[in-house]
Amino acid sequence: MTGSRILSLGHYQPSRVVTNDEIAQLVETSDEWIRDRVGIAARRIAGDETVADMAAAAADKALANSGLNAADIDLVVVATCTSIDRSPNVACRVADKLGIDAPGAYDVNTACSGFAYALGTVDHAVRAGASRNALVIGAEKLSDFTDWTDRSTCIIFGDGAGAAVVTAAGEDEPAGVGPVVWGSVPERGDAVRIQGWRPYVAQEGQTVFRWATTALAPLALQACERAGVDPSELAAFVPHQANSRIIDGIAKRLNIPQAIIAKDIVESGNTSAASIPLALSKLVERREVPAGAPVLLFGFGGGLTYAGQVVRCP
Ligand SMILES: CC(C)(COP(=O)(O)OP(=O)(O)OC[C@H]1O[C@@H](n2cnc3c(N)ncnc32)[C@H](O)[C@@H]1OP(=O)(O)O)[C@@H](O)C(=O)NCCC(=O)NCCS
To answer: What is the average pLDDT score of the chain?
Structure first.
């Protein structure tokens, strides 16, 4: 039962930057309100790119950074809740675009916690001997599901993708992906939803806010405990980028003043399953976290699902 580790990361964001002032031309809101209540200054919105295009672009970069090539990949897993096509799934499309031959290929939909869930399943596949080198991707085109007349949701979301190459750790190497802590609150699952035919994102914002700021810190601490990492050792905390105040609220309860707290939300908005790999990939690209240092990932969102694990920085 060899563990797994993240070998490399990559990300992709559409070129179009949409500022708060631009959104204030669509609905009654302001740059000041959005910065103050959510912490977002801008977000990227896709043009013609599909979820699969963005996923493949991020995965291509992660693969280029890994030293492996397409022939080495035997599993592709994509976390997304915004793919329009029911089939083929996004993972198959990514494999086709990157020329990956005959991989296991499946999508995971747990909304904003998707990347941590997908990473958990890939870690299990590696441990079970079902995969040696995998691509794990979070990719979302939330703009397709945004009601641009609803100011309670259209200010929040953005589009993008982040990807990781995950490989089997060596026999004598410590696991670089810690045990996943995952779960959900199905009885309150409707608090964030994209439901029905031709749906839009809808949410009970305050319910989500209260849940996130009260219930999640102890679960994130469980992920540290299961990895055998004391929170004081964390080099960084990369939570789902839902709201700056939620991120600060959880981080405060974790009591990790030494850790970098990812705040990609400021520039990217809430990109759901893409937000964790996007933020982590940027931290690594900027060399803000040393290789091998423990980083706590924690996703949460529609369902109300959550998942997190401690990973070693590539
Ligand atoms: C959505 C969210 C930003 C709203 O912030 P809030 O402080 O809870 O705001 P409220 O919904 O209580 O609304 C407060 C006031 O601001 C107004 N308001 C709501 N959206 C606004 C906007 N974009 N611009 C200006 N005013 C707005 C409301 O109408 C309300 O006005 P009222 O007091 O006159 O009725 C916040 O609840 C949140 O971030 N929740 C978590 C949601 C989330 O993370 N979802 C994704 C999960 S993955």
So the answer is: 97
